[in-house]
Amino acid sequence: MNPIVRTVFASLLLLFVLGAEALASERRRGPGRGDDERDLVVDKQGNEVRGRVIRRYGDEGVLVLQGGSTKLVKKADVARVETTRERLATFLAERKAGLTVEQEWALVARAGALQLPHLQRLQALHVLLRDPDHEAAHAFLGHKRRNKRWRWVIGKHEAPKEELDKLVSKWSDRASLRSEHFVVETSTGLRNAVNLAFDLERLYVAWMAEFGELFNLAEDVRDPLRVMTVLVYPAKYSEDFKDSLSALREPFYSAATNLVTSTGNPNLAITYYREGDEFPVDFFDVATQQLLYSTTVLGGVKGELPPFDGQRMCHWIELGLGYWFGRQFGGKAGYCERQPFVTDFALRKQAAIDAPGGNLAAADNEVTNLIGLHMELYHLPNKLTPLHRAKARTFFEYLMTERPRIEHKRGKFVDGFAGIVGYLREAYHTPRSHSSSAFDNALGGKVEVLEGPWKKWLLAK
């Protein structure tokens, strides 16, 4: 068979397979999140429970969302659990840089087989960005050819590629792309939008692998109207950049209702590109903060959650967590990789300078003051704001990387890592929220015990 004919035939056959898989997936998924049956729990008697797993860790068992209600499969009865997250991890492991266009196209079918419909469409769009004339990808995405030109469809927009690029470069007409757990909205081009969507899913998989069991995290937001949404602007001083927290125009995460999308969603991470950078500024940092809220207070079970009115709950620990976890991601856009944490010595040097310009070692009660600061003091346009941020981030780094365990009484220790774990569990997972003594209780002693060791570590390098 002629090679060209063989290629066309293979693409048509794959397109047929894709259509059948998409139909089967749609039947299983239903019209909305409440009817999504992609996850499976099998008990020891062989009974199947389908829906979306909300939470799979914890002593009580696996909690499954079915329509508007939940079903608990007791831990002792669970034989097997299959989740969207596991299939997502499989797909992302197979999606590597350096593949040919046809290998990329084959991944569209692979995403369908793994019941990942949003990534299936993203992958098809990725194929078109590599090969704008790929007929099978156009057909799969529902594009029509008019006057010998393909009309691309992105949300409400339909136009030839050149015209579409100009259209979505305006913030008011920005591209909005859905992945399995996120929405990316940006006016920086389709290539960036696709890459960012895939990178966010890689961050999600790593986040759940690292902390899912440790913090008994939810697999996703419970309310689909609060899907994690990331707004990416072309520059720090973009005219449309709405900085609701301060005048600093820095990346941030917000769940407050005074800043929402056109659909009323307040679950927003906001950042921008800096010229020459591979990723938006603090992209993985603010997305990590968003994951913290989305897999706890926005993703848990009613009656088991702390009261939440959209205000930040513990800003120093959120800034620290975003910095520590987010800093571990880099590489190539669209194919980000987790890397060993590398300390930011400039940040540590900044944190070591006390407010008046002296040495941190000469100041008192720095740790106590740090964890008691209100959210506004991390965002106000004030000369002390960068110092507060630096201290929060480096103190969290110290607790996570050094994992200090310091005897403060005979046989009694302050444990830095245990303090982080216990505090996060109480502050974001229990109805009582966090008390003033929650961190001390989780540490096993007064936080002041860590003051000297933290300063010594900070000033040592």
Strand order of the largest sheet: 4-3-2-1-5
CATH architecture of the largest domain: 3-Layer(aba) Sandwich
Annotated CATH topology of the largest domain: Glutaredoxin
Question: Kindly, what is the distance between the CA atoms of the first and last residues, rounded to a whole number of angstroms?
Answer: 67 Å
Low-confidence stretches: 3-8, 22-32
Largest sheet: 5 strands, antiparallel
Class per helix and strand makeup: alpha+beta
**Cα Rg:** 24 Å
What is the average of the pLDDT values? 86
Rough shape? globular
Number of domains: 3
Annotation field: number of helices: 15
The CATH class of the largest domain: Alpha Beta
Beta strands, count: 17
Strand portion, in percent? 15-25%
Q: What portion of residues is helical? A: 40-55%
Describe this structure in words.
The protein has 15 helices and 17 strands. With 461 residues, it is α+β, with helices and mostly antiparallel strands. The chain folds into three domains: 32-82, Roll (SH3 type barrels), CATH 2.30.30.100; 169-332, Glutaredoxin; 345-460, no CATH class. Helix 7 (190-211) links the parallel strand 10 and strand 11 (228-233). Helix 7 crosses helix 8. The model is unreliable at 3-8 and 22-32 (pLDDT under 50).
